Amino acid sequence: MSGRRAELAGRLTAVRQRMERAADRAGRDPAELTLVVVTKTYPAADVALLADLGVLDVGEARVDEAADKVGELAHAASRLTWHEIGQVQTKKAGKVARWADVVHSVDRARLVEALRRAAEAESRTLQAFVQVSIDGEPGRGGAQMAEVPALADQIAASSRLELLGVMAVAPRRLDPNRAFAALQQASEQLRAAHPDAKYISAGMSGDLEQAIAHGATHLRVGTAVLGSRPPLK
Ligand SMILES: *Cc1c(COP(=O)(O)O)cnc(C)c1O
After folding, report:
1. Could you tell me the distance, in angstroms and rounded to a whole number, from the CA of residue 204 to the centre of ligand 1?
2. Are strands 199-201 and 57-60 parallel, antiparallel or unpaired?
3. Counting C-beta atoms within 10 Å of the first and last residue's C-beta, which end of the chain has fewer, N or C?
4. Does residue 169 contact residue 162 with C-beta atoms inside 8 Å?
5. Which residues pair with 6 in a beta bridge?
6. 84-120: per-residue pLDDT in tens?
7. Per-residue CA distances from 94 to 49, 91, 118, 140, 214 (Å)
8. Which of 87, 106, 204, 229 to mutate to test the pocket of ligand 1 (most atoms within 8 A of CB)?
9. Exposure b/e, 81-91, CB count within 10 A at least 16 = b
10. pLDDT value at position 233?
11. Which residues pair with 82 in a beta bridge?
């Protein structure tokens, strides 16, 4: 086994164990949880190793970087489910629709419409989470809580888009338990109108336990599997 492969295998096992223990503590079935391994800034070779180690879901933030990796992996990429987890500029919607299966960061009406059109043009269906801003600050993206119902309705009414649920990034200065409790509440409200949109994308390397305690179904984990990223420029 190559050094990198062994390193990834060890960290992957540790993350899966953390998820199982957190599910146990929350009285939840670990089979309800989807681990999305976030490979942003890491090369396609790492994605290939992860796929070989049984990873089925891969997350990327930058649209162009992801498109390059999918191109490089060619056949191997088609066996994976690709998640766009970062902010998406409206003008990049067309590119996203070419490689992503799931978009976690849908936070405005213009982006919903751009993704719908792009998916239509590519004859693809995109699954979508409404990204919610927990503290209302615009920096990390995310819709205001009050905007969520209208966005959800718009996605649900769009051919080629499928509403999965809500997503959030916990604000750094907030107790993650409070942030994820607020997200869980938003999920409950969403399900009153859209019963099938029962998924919650929440939890990263540092707070996946708290997210699982508050109903997360999709964990977006980068550094705990791949190692720390060089700071973004
Ligand atoms: C980078 C990123 C993650 C992964 O974060 P880690 O702390 O490396 O696990 C999760 N979600 C989003 C939106 C990200 O941009």
Report:
1. 6
2. unpaired
3. C
4. no
5. none
6. 999 999 999 999 999 999 999 999 999 999 999 999 9
7. 28, 7, 5, 22, 34
8. 204
9. ebbbbbbbeee
10. 52
11. 58
Q: Say how far residue 224 (Cα) sits from the centre of its chain.
A: 16
Work out which ligand 1 atom sits closest to the CA atom of 105: 13
Q: Which atom number of ligand 1 is nearest to the Cα of residue 220?
A: 10
Q: Which of 188, 197, 233 is nearest to 218 (CA)?
A: 197
pTM above 0.90, yes or no: yes
pLDDT in tens, 148-196: 999 999 999 999 999 999 999 999 999 999 999 999 999 999 999 999 9
Tokens of 29: 């079935």
Query: How far away, in angstroms, is 112 Cα from ligand 1 center?
Result: 22
AA letter at 63: V
CA 15 to chain centre: 16
Q: Which protein residues touch ligand 1 with a CB less than 6 Å away?
A: 38, 40, 61, 85-86, 169, 204-206, 220-224
The percent of residues above 90 in pLDDT, for the chain, comes to 91
CA of 124 to the centre of ligand 1 (A): 26
Residue 140: band (very low, low, confident or very high) from pLDDT cuts 50, 70, 90: confident
